[in-house]
Amino acid sequence: MRMKTTRTSSNTVDTDDTQDTHKTPTTTRKTATMELYVDSANLADIKHAASLGFISGVTTNPSLLAKEDPSLDIKTLILDIHASVGGHTSVEVISTDADGMLREADEILKWFPEATIKIPFIPEGLKAVRALSDQDIPTNVTLLFTPLQALIAANAGATYVSLFLGRLDDMASDGLRAVEDTVEVWDMHDVEALIIAASIRHPIHLLGVAKAGAHIATVPYKVLMQSMQHPLTDAGVESFLADHAKMMKAKGGA
Prior knowledge:
Elements: E1 12-14, E2 27-29, E3 35-39, H1 43-51, E4 57-59, H2 62-66, H3 74-85, E5 88-92, H4 98-111, E6 116-120, H5 123-133, E7 139-144, H6 147-155, E8 160-164, H7 166-170, H8 175-189, E9 194-198, H9 203-212, E10 216-219, H10 221-228, H11 231-253
Parallel strand pairs: 3-4, 3-10, 4-5, 5-6, 6-7, 7-8, 8-9, 9-10
Antiparallel strand pairs: 1-2
């Protein structure tokens, strides 16, 4: 049997509450660096992100897979994605009953033994999570929008809990606050499940979840590329290269 992923051990220190727009958790963890996953099923984008050296996993879902070439074999695509990145790869079930989810999980694990089984947060999904957890099969519970949903999923045995920011913001709710509150609950009770911040829409979301203390952020390829860019970086490189060329020209003419 495979061992489930567990959270890096942490120490906590008391901090003062602030009156900022987003509440500062009452405890601050000292943990490993927040991991970055790419939220995509586009193999070219995933390979490029992986080549840059900072991606440690991939999350997929039926909607992302549906955007790709319909002639592609889904199993082959997912295996190619995993081979490109290694590490975590979530594969989502589509059944809405526990027995169907478990049958799908069993089938997925036959052709992809390293898969993390992604399961929606519905009552039947929780049944499936508990059954898979009892077999030490890692699960990623998705479509979470509140700390209580995340806590319930963790108690069912989820290895990962995926909180969606962007969809909350679309409804004029505070997606970042949901992550902050979940981290605070995790710190208070030393919950082992890993918090994945999902539905990341822009670099400010990514910065926010890093400051909040999410263990992992799964990020669209476009947002990852945006997060790398800054005009002063580009200007600095151009300036250095221009100065180097000027220096070499002067040396050649000496």
